[in-house]
Amino acid sequence: MPDSSTSLVPKYKRVLLKLSGEALGFGGNKLGINLDETKAIAEQLKRVHGRGVELAIVVGGGNLLRGAQFTAGGETIKPATADYMGMLATVMNGLALQDTLEAMGVPTRLLSAVRMETVAEPFIRRRAIRHLEKGRVVILAAGTGNPFVTTDTAAALRGTELEVGVVLKATRVDGVYSGDPEKDPNAVKYDTLTYDKVIKDRLRVMDIGAFEMCRLAKLPIVVFNYKQEGAIEKAIAGRRIGTVVSG
Fold first, then answer.
1. Residue 59 within any structural domain of the chain
2. Phi, psi dihedrals of residue 96, rounded to the nearest 5°
3. Would you say residue 157 lies in a domain?
């Protein structure tokens, strides 16, 4: 059972969780939304919300659509179009996460950077902050609304706009390494890093634009493996998990 003791008192009042589409999917090459995985994530989010954390989530769409699907098609589907399709995939994931959370009694709002008022509110900064203050989980879909921009950048941008205390990047890897741990058996995991160390050693934390945005805003980043038991709760509680990047 996840640790739900009082030792998991939140360290941060308001957080931005960057959740990849993979976290809601089946893994491997199988595309789609895995309801069991979605429920497992939602259960952690419910516990976090129950501790009074103001929670904003940027959700990806890689479990439904990947840009690499179109690379073999030449210019039939242009890169910008593929990116817009990916944005729509994030809205689908956002809807699934929204209904799963609300079935558990957690109030939510789905905000989209691409206007589609029949299914989601448009992203308006002051409105999003008000939702957070009212105790609603804010799910942020469609990235920034622009092609050629990653969901990492969306997470950094929204985290800065919403004045969160930390950006949590949930990944398949349990932190930042000196090399690719899946290819280099000698890669060393870092528990903590400074922004300057990341730049100097060219470490892969986020894409460079997103990372620079966090650095300028002095916004800490925690990179961790969402598959670890209670990982989201532990990261928000400031437990030693993954890699913390800060000034």
1. yes
2. -65, -45
3. no
